[in-house]
Every structure is written in C-alpha cells, then in structure tokens.
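Appendix B, example 12.
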Amino acid sequence: MQGSKRNQKRQKKKAYKDRNQTRGRRGKPNKRFLIVCEGTETEPNYFEALGRKIKNKVNLNIRREGKVYSSLVEKAREIVKEDGSYKINAGDEVWCVFDRDINRQNGNQQDFNEAIILAYDNSINLAISNDAFELWFLQHFSYYESETHRINYKSMLSQSIGGKYNKNDPQLYEKLEPYQEQAIKNSARLWNSYDQTIDLPTDETDKLIKKHNMNPSTTIHLLVGKLIKYL
C-alpha cells in the first residue's frame, strides 16, 4: 500500500514537471526564422503583420536591408555569422526576399543568377518575385500566369481589393488574409507549372535560376506556407 502511494506521488511529481517544461517551451519558441528583405516597406510590413499573429509560437527576425541580389544574400550570411545562434542544420531557417526587376539599373542578370547560387550553397531560402512582390498579392484573387509588368500591378490590385491599392497600407495584410490559402495554391501552381512547360536542366541550381527568371513567378508562398502553420 505504501509503495503504491509512493508511486502515485512520483507520477504526480513527474506530471507536474512535464507541464512546467511544456510551459517553458511555449514561453520561449525554439523555431527561428530570419527574413532579410530587399524592400524597406512593403515586404517587411507584410511579414511583420503576419509575425504579430504568431509571435508567441515562433522566433521571427525581419530585417529591412535595402540591398539587392547577391549583396542581400551576403548580408543574410553576415547576420547569421554575427548572431551566432542560428542553427540551420537543426531547423532554423534563413530567407531572402527580393524581386527580379528586369528594368533595375543597379543589378544585372549575372548578379541575379549568382545570388541564387550563393543562397543555395549556404542553405539560404529564396522568396523571389518576378517581377514584383505585388504578384503575390494578385494571386490572392485570381490565378495569374501571363507576363505582367509591375506598372500594371497597382491598377489590377485596386480593382481586386475594391479600393485604391496602397503598398504601405497598414491594414493590407488583414485585407488579404481571407484569401491567403488561395494565394498559396495559385502561386504553387504557377511555380510548378514551369516543370512541365520549359526545358529544365538536371542541376538543381541551374533549374532554380531558370525558373526564377520566368515572368511571372514567385516563391513567396513557400515562406508564407511555413509561417501560417503557427497560426
């Protein structure tokens, strides 16, 4: 009888300890995301709005860097090295978010391609939009597969949203959120469609280079899809 009581006490003590450990894990999220953005407003504003909804479940660090292509990837490497606490091999993730702007004067084709190779070699994920981040917004409303220049995105989004599109609208994420799952499906469909419609090389980096150079294309859905799992 006494042995049975001692076993019950030990089991209660263990259960209490397990609950405390669980609270500790909940209080300090283990999963870490570093998101390094080319833009200083639209992209970080969007991810910060999403981040506020999952702040107690994941450690999210969003950087506004204003750099392009390989310089942005280099900056991500620098942040990881200086911080010293990101454990990519243990599940932490580093993402670079930027556009493939065909009219950009301060970045060329070679630099864009080198950015993809550099990211791949350093286990850095890429959320690239060709040719603008607004393509991701458009995919919330319809499946877009035709080449569209960024100068047309504003009017197209204004029609879809039902009001003037403002890329720095603080409520933009909330306006788009109801259509988020559809955006992920549309963007994934577009990205995967190039596996069947273009001649892809077998080398993985060459394949990524060719697909990221397709207009339209975006891989924002890959990052958003991972983050909303914590909602």
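Strands lie at 32-37, 59-64, 93-99, 125-130, 217-218. Residues 12-25 have pLDDT under 50 and may be disordered.
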